[in-house]
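Hi all, long-time lurker, first post. I run a small reading group and we've been trying to get comfortable going from sequence to structure in the token notation. Rather than ask abstract questions, I figured I'd post a concrete chain and ask someone more experienced to write out its structure so we can walk through it together at our next meeting. Sequence below, copied exactly:
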Amino acid sequence: MRTTSVRRAGAREWGGLAVLALPTVLLGLDVTVLYLALPSLAEDLRPSGTQELWIMDAYGFLIAGFLLTMGTLGDRIGRRRLLMTGAAAFGAVSVLAAWSTSAELLIVARAALGIAGATLMPSTLALISNMFADQRQRSLAIGVWATSFALGMALGPVVGGVMLDHFWWGSVFLLAVPVAIVLLVAAPVLIPEYRAPRSGPFDLLGVALSLAAILPVVYAVKRFAEDGPDGPTIATALLGVVFAALFVRRQAGLANPLLDVRLFADRTFSAALGVLLVGLVGVGGSMLLITQQLQFVEGLPPVEAGLWMGPPALLMFLAAIGSPLVARRVEPGIVVAATLALSTVGYVLLALVDASDGIALMVIGFGLVYLGLGAIAALGTDLVVGAAPAEKAGSASAMSETVQELGLALGVAVLGSLATAVYRDRIDDAMPAGVPSELADVAGDSLAGAVSSAQRMPAGWLDHAKEAATSGMNTAMIVAAACTLLLSFVSAVVLRRVGVIGGDAPETDGDAPVTDGDAPVTDGDDPVTDGDDPVTDGDDPAESALSGI
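-- Answer (accepted) --
Happy to help. Here is the structure in token form:
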């Protein structure tokens, strides 16, 4: 195992990290703001239950589909350039979403935001891996990056609640505009450009195959959760699997692939991706169901619902920044397993929530769920990125973000659809006789429809609808608890060989990329930069102080 002298980050790198945190805050804010705005936009646009789910997860599906493409594209054209392009596009499309006049237009806008968001996420994470070569500094920087997402999720309900209290639902999308402007101004000053050496031609066929693999599979999962294993659902899933096999086969034979499949030979890389994927499924579903429960069942206004969501987000904030520090003394696998066990307790508490009075129990349970999210987001991401060489950082970052966004989207689709199925089954039994079929369809489709049609239904019927919705959430949380408990045991086993952060390099096997424990190994060529690479001689007092972190 060879050793290298690793330059520690200075003042400019830490300033650049603050700039890279901006789009991360924006993406976290965008998630929670929309959950909070759903009741208002549902009243205005009148989406069906299926359209509601598409409004929520079109963003996640498209961002998952394009992350791999954008991560590799950033390696080729420049990660800072792609970041700035994506920020400008995200701001522009947010304006379109804000003034959507129909559910269909909002779904299209959300899909476009997913494509634009796919340029932001791998760019920020890949640039962090370039700017922070020292392993401990990189782990802390990734913790700050994950914390920024938590900060956005924490600010989203509060800021969004205030805006919804004074403006229309579309105003929450406009929060992206000032963030995009600040990033466009500050990025050229504080963030170095990076392009991978000898990146080769861009694999357009690979892009098409990756989309043909990801999108049919996630759509089939959504259809399965809603309608069961019918013929079209099975056919769509099989089509995605076939394209996935073709994609992997093509990538394995290319000198410069979109995804270097050899990265999966590293068991730490593969295990960390699995933890991120499964862990985020429960979070995505519970996030949707809790926000609906607070507003539709508990009847809280947006501002108050947003404030109740603040304490759980604070716990995620603390876990994201604290877990990398704890992992300097305790093996990451133990930290991840322990926090996931606490998340399991949180899901169990959510499964016990009652329709009549469950706010305190929801906040405590959701806080424990978010505690696990903060830990796996920070440590899982660091393990994935740290396993890849510098020239593959964009691809590795894209894989990390792909599984996280895919997990969130699948959580909304699977757990949201499971809760909806339970609601519809329960509400059919409680539907009063003599209700017009049109009204019965609206009220029986979703809790949002039940609330909007409550005045035309018999007295007391809305209480039955709230109980049915709560039963649906309870059922979904039982499933999430079982999966998270299993994931906790798996994490302890598959990550047991990973040493403490900053210690000896983890064991690898097969054709895994070789690292020295501190910095990724490159092919010997310097990365292509624009001349602004902040190489310092260590004489700057500010940089000397910050380099000790």
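A couple of things your group might point at:
The radius of gyration is 23 Å.
Residues 148 and 416 are 26 Å apart (CA to CA).
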